[in-house]
Design goal:
The complex is a heterodimer of chains A (175) and B (100). Chain A is mainly alpha-helical and 175 residues long. Chain A has eight helices and no strands. Classes of the chains: A mainly alpha (175), B mainly alpha (100).
């Protein structure tokens, strides 16, 4: 049963990725991206990362993608007649060759490596989100705090960028 | 049991799709979406190796990547709104105010 699910999620996510890049209408691209994110979440479930799958759905599909669609529909971006860079279209050929080479290399590797302590059974005993939380608030505490400051900076930056300048601001700039 | 190389192959295909999108598309919201595809490919790789090596560190780092993607989307879309409001451009190749 597992290979069937994997084949479905992998195939649909690759197809939606290609559609996101290739479709002409930006809103349809957004919907294709939504499908991609959902199926990547399915792949996360197959990889025993249930908490990350939920976060993927809630944050990516629920917050980030809605932001994209909101901006798209608010700005009413027209569908362009010429929507590709013709100049760079030849690069696709080179990219395809590199991809095939990369795939052959990847499929031939055996991916040895030192195994960690978090086997599926150990994680199952406390639950996936508890195990991630314990790790995040002990070993990864400093990166976690840095991400918090980064998000604060992003919020302030987005507000400052999109704020309408008042008349007083314009006069102060002219002085 | 799905081999690790299958996940890595899916991730590689998605990453290359994102690179092609950034290089080829002219609409800059689609360029941002292609960057999201690349971040997702990286996340898939992190989680696949976390599962393979039986360590949760990959999942924690994938969470950080999602947070970074949220910040990037917010600031990127704010820049797009500013550029669009100033009637400067709707395509990436027309935004050349900073070009010397």
């Amino acid at each position: 049963m597992l290979p069937v699910f994997f084949a479905y999620f992998a195939l649909v996510s690759v197809v939606s990725g290609v559609l996101t890049v290739a479709l002409r209408n930006p809103v349809q691209c957004g919907i294709a991206l939504l499908s991609l994110l959902g199926h990547i979440a399915g792949l996360f479930v197959l990889l025993n990362a249930e908490f990350l799958a939920a976060v993927q759905i809630i944050i990516y599909a629920g917050a980030i993608l809605i932001l994209y669609l909101f901006v798209l529909m608010m700005l009413n971006l027209k569908t362009e007649e010429r929507y590709l860079h013709r100049r760079y279209a030849w690069y696709i050929l080179g990219v395809a060759v590199i991809t095939v080479e990369l795939m052959l290399m990847l499929l031939a590797s055996d991916y040895a490596g030192m195994k960690g302590p978090a086997t599926v059974e150990v994680v199952q005993q406390v639950g996936n989100s508890t195990a991630i939380g314990i790790l995040m608030f002990s070993d990864y505490l400093l990166p976690f705090e840095i991400v918090g400051v980064f998000l604060l900076g992003a919020i302030v930056g987005a507000i400052v960028l999109t704020k309408n300048p008042t008349r007083a601001d314009i006069e102060r700039e002219l002085l | 049991m799905i081999p690790l190389s299958a996940y890595v192959a899916v991730s590689a295909i998605l990453f290359v799709t994102g690179v092609v999108g950034v290089l080829v598309r002219r609409n800059f919201i689609i360029v941002l979406m292609s960057i999201e595809i690349m971040l997702n490919a990286a996340n898939l790789n992190l989680v696949a190796f976390a599962n393979h090596l039986q360590s949760l560190s990959g999942q924690v780092v994938a969470l950080f990547v999602i947070a970074i993607a949220a910040g990037e989307a917010a600031v990127g879309l704010a820049i797009i709104i500013v550029v669009f409001r100033g009637k400067i451009a709707t395509n990436v190749d027309q935004i050349d105010l900073l070009k010397w």
